[in-house]
Write a structure and sequence with these properties.
The strands form two sheets. Strands 5, 6, 7, 8, 9, 10, 11, 12, 13, 14, 15 and 16 form a twelve-stranded mixed sheet that branches. The termini are far apart. Strand 2 and strand 3 (33-39) form a beta hairpin. The chain has three domains: 4-50; 61-357 and 484-552, TIM Barrel (Alpha-Beta Barrel); 382-475, no CATH class. It has helices at residues 53-66, 126-129, 137-148, 171-181, 193-197, 199-208, 223-230, 235-248, 268-277, 298-304, 308-318, 333-342, 379-394, 417-428, 432-444, 451-456, 461-468, 472-477, 499-503, 525-540, 550-564, and strands spanning 4-12, 19-26, 33-39, 43-50, 106-110, 157-161, 185-190, 212-216, 253-256, 258-259, 282-289, 357-364, 370-372, 483-489, 507-512, 520-524. The longest helix has 16 residues, at 379-394. It contains 21 helices and 16 strands. The chain has 566 residues and is α/β, with parallel strands linked by helices.
């Protein structure tokens, strides 16, 4: 077997963080997809990207083939404070600069780096850092307004994180302000300590308008694993969080396991089973293979590196092969835009790089068994049809006569959407948006499998609603049933850093510029954590008087857990 070069990119030296060229290739000895790069000062570095080269190569081409890679919202992206000029190149000029190629879908704000835990796996905790970074309420509003002012489309989603965001007393106030500013989904990333302790606090977040709780969830009933990952057994507390969410009607909980090889990768099946058994509250699982920090040898790196391909293998071993395809996140790009257009809402799409992760849906059938989404839909055919219809909408085209508009040839009345809409309103009472929705429905039905079961079995009501009324709302409600989103975001570190991925990042940190408090810096997730975080946070840091020592936090946690155990 000979070595195969898949593509070339630019990476960073893990020692000096300088740009260096890199090759992505298939190693003939291991049949793994690897990254290889060489720094003139620090030598050669290699890292593992995938244990499944065939699937890796399929994903590289699939997004292009399916037609969802184009992003019309970033040429250029503009914000109220302007775009930062290119000076040192990517990823050093983040602010954001003209190099970026994907519009941000998620505005991520670390509302504090204080925490009520002291986890071995953490890059943001004040106890570990030795200093406190906590923007004021007004600064958080400033950041949110920055992301909502983007042209032509504002960032649609907000994620409040940390540290631990629930240690802020004004978190409900921040959530309410975010909804007021128009974020269509507000997410809180939390360890669940405060929510597990207090039903009333869970209700406060729910009443404030939080749409999704991203719950740190690294294991199930395995005390030793919890202690390795988080320093204390959090299982009793995690169950309380789910109970409290159920009681207050807080649906849309996403379990977020940080997966470390040899530490908790054996828990993947148990986590999926727990999600399935609590699918009335839990909408899915977002796995995050751990990023590796610090200096380590190649042998240590190979022992610790857990790739998305390792995760995919473990998921299918746990679900009896229920995932036929692990689709790149960008697969649904035009479908999402189309659904937003149907709702007359700003268009957005998650057009990330193919290596950033995957997203698919597992169905829990009427017998409580895992089933592939492909058992119910021709997924590739459906996506292809959505792409075609969206392209027609984007180009202001109209369909040929269908049964809906029999005898009326809309095309002869021009291709301007407003003209078509007015014509159809005058003649049939149906606007252009409704015509295209009906046209989409007509083609959509050709890609539905087992329609008899979907339209007659109560288990699949969400399928029927989505088919009959395709919209962002019905798509969202699709996951408030026994359909579980199974996805992964594999964040980068200095060893596997790929500038092509950074340029297509969708999750952008918003931080106040430490050199000019009137400006907001917008920094792609992996660039923030690999390159920028320490420098920015030290400039923004408050006095360390409020940072508690890890041992004090540990004692408080053990006391808390004793109080909530059944």
């Amino acid at each position: 077997m000979t070595e195969e070069i898949i593509r070339e990119t630019t990476s960073l030296c893990p020692e000096c963080l300088h740009q260096i060229p890199a090759e992505i290739y298939v190693d003939p000895k291991t049949n793994w997809v690897m990254m290889r790069k060489n720094c003139k000062d620090h030598g050669e570095f290699k890292d593992k990207l995938s244990i499944n080269p065939d699937e890796y190569k399929w994903a590289q081409n699939f997004t292009k083939e399916i037609g969802s890679v184009e992003n019309n919202s970033t040429k250029p992206v503009t914000v109220s404070s302007g775009i930062k000029p290119i000076k040192n190149g990517c990823p050093y000029d983040c602010g954001i600069c003209d190099n970026h190629e994907s519009a941000p879908c998620i505005c991520l704000i670390d509302v504090t780096n204080k925490c009520n835990l002291s986890c071995p796996i953490c890059f943001a905790n004040a106890s570990a850092k030795g200093y406190v970074v906590q923007p004021t309420y007004d600064q958080i509003v400033q950041i949110m307004e920055h992301f909502r002012s983007m042209k032509p489309h504002p960032a649609p989603m907000l994620q409040l994180a940390g540290g631990e965001p629930t240690v802020r007393e004004d978190l409900p106030k921040i959530i309410r302000k975010a909804k007021e500013l128009g974020f269509i989904e507000v997410m809180v990333s939390t360890n669940g300590v405060r929510m597990g302790k207090s039903l009333e606090y869970t209700r406060k977040l729910h009443d404030a308008g939080v749409d999704a709780v991203y719950l740190q969830f690294d294991a199930t009933d395995d005390p030793e694993t919890w202690k390795k990952v988080r320093g204390v057994n959090l299982w009793p507390l995690k169950k309380k969080v789910i109970e409290h969410c159920r009681e207050v009607g807080q649906y849309g909980v996403m379990l977020v396991p940080t997966v470390a090889k040899g530490v908790n990768d054996h828990q993947i099946g148990a986590i999926l089973e727990y999600a399935k058994n609590n699918a009335d509250v839990i909408s899915g699982v977002v796995f995050q293979p751990v990023s590796l920090c610090g200096r380590i040898s190649f042998e240590e790196l190979m022992d610790l590196r857990y790739t998305t391909s390792d995760l995919k293998k473990a998921i299918n071993e746990s679900t009896n092969g229920a995932v036929t395809r692990f689709y790149p996140i960008a697969t649904t790009g035009k479908l999402t835009k189309l659904l937003a257009w149907f709702d007359n809402k700003p268009e957005w799409a998650m057009l990330s790089h193919k290596d950033c992760g995957f997203a698919t849906i597992c169905v829990v059938d009427e017998h409580d068994n895992w089933r592939p989404i492909e058992d119910f839909f021709d997924v590739e055919g459906l996506i292809g049809w959505a792409n075609k219809v969206y392209d027609m909408v984007y180009n202001k085209e109209v369909p040929k006569p269908t049964g809906l508009l029999k005898g009326v040839d809309l095309s002869k009345y021009g291709v301007i959407a407003e003209t078509v809409g007015k014509f159809v309103d005058d003649v049939t009472g149906i606007g252009y948006r409704q015509v295209m929705k009906a046209y989409f429905f007509g083609g959509l039905t050709k890609h539905v499998k087992n329609p008899e079961k979907i339209f007659t079995n109560k288990t699949y009501q969400s399928f029927a609603k989505l088919i009959l009324n395709p919209s962002l709302d019905t798509a969202g409600n699709f996951l408030h049933t026994k359909n579980l989103l199974i996805s992964c975001m594999h964040f980068q570190d200095a060893y596997n850093f790929d500038l092509n991925r950074v340029k297509h990042c969708l999750v952008h940190y918003g931080v106040i510029d430490p050199n000019d408090s009137n400006k907001v810096l917008e920094i792609p997730f992996c660039a923030m954590n690999t390159v920028h975080r320490e420098n920015i946070e030290r400039k923004l840091a408050l006095q360390d008087e409020e940072a508690e020592k890890p041992e004090v936090i540990q004692q408080k946690m053990e006391s808390l857990l004793d109080s909530i155990k059944e």
